[in-house]
């Protein structure tokens, strides 16, 4: 027990701690080192123990003077003076094992010694410091947990409000159901009309494209024929140049005519290529227009459900363009509302994620603190386990010695019983001897008296005869 893990405080430190933390008022002012150590005053030491029990175990002063109700005592007045000491010993015996002190005895209360009181008080003060430190840590954790729970509740309420708002926005009021049904019917009619117009335009475009393709094919054939003819003419020109010698003026005129014809052919070729490219662009644009129209139809189908208020649509079919523009404006407004709501929801989700991350960090910090505390306690318990093993070995030896003492006591009791039996037998024998001796004395006295009577009678007879 001399190698305990808690620190040993000096008597001066213990006295200063008791004055500042445990005792109050006149008790702290009147406390002196000689009242606890050296030749201690039992009243002061008992008062210090009671104040420690009040601070740690929340025991009141009345409990120290109360008789246990589950015990039947004939004369409780006898125990009144011993009750405070006995209750103090019982409560300290429960407290000190938590302070890693296991050899506390009632003699430490009735007849305390300085070394043992120093060790007991240092262990108690170490436990009190540890308890206060852990209480502060627990209060900090409780405050952080409360703040986190309040934040979570606030975020839950905000989410509930947002969900209610979204439900209100998604749900159609009863007043506008008829209008929305009319609008959806009108939108469907408009979609059917747009599809019919699209089909008509598509068929017309297909016919135009087919005609233009045929024209392009014919013109390409003509171009090819012209190219073949030009090549043939060039060959003939070269042949003729080699055969016929013309005048330079005629050659110049022919060359100018040929150049003009070539320019005309080039212009026609450029016009044909431009028309071909325009037709090709128109043909290529057709599938993209179809895709855009399909996407527009899908958007109209998806967003037609979320439209709340649309302008009144006239039944006239002539003002389709105006109706489409108004519908597009309201769709843009609904898109803006949806984007604002989505931004609000995303912001709230981000707040929730940040709160969850903070909670996770707090939980991780708590787990780390717990792990460090558990590691510290495991190390302390390992050290104390070795001490406990030593103490258990000493206790075993003490138990063995106690058993030997009990055996010796049993043997002594048996021997005393045998001696008592022998004494009883000897007493009985002595009594019998005394009785026999008394009888012998009585018989001898009677025989002597008879003999004396006979002698006296003989003497009297002799005297009478003489």
Automatic annotation (TrEMBL):
Keywords: Cell cycle, Cell division, Centromere, Chromosome, Coiled coil, Kinetochore, Mitosis, Nucleus. Belongs to the NUF2 family. Residues 4-144 form the Kinetochore protein Nuf2 N-terminal domain. It is found in: Chromosome, Centromere, Kinetochore; Nucleus. GO terms for biological process: attachment of mitotic spindle microtubules to kinetochore; cell division; kinetochore organization; meiotic chromosome segregation; mitotic spindle organization. This is Kinetochore protein Nuf2. GO terms for cellular component: Ndc80 complex; nucleus. Residues 152-282, 310-344, 391-425 form a coiled coil. GO terms for molecular function: protein-containing complex binding. The keyword Hydrolase does not apply. The keyword Cell cycle applies.
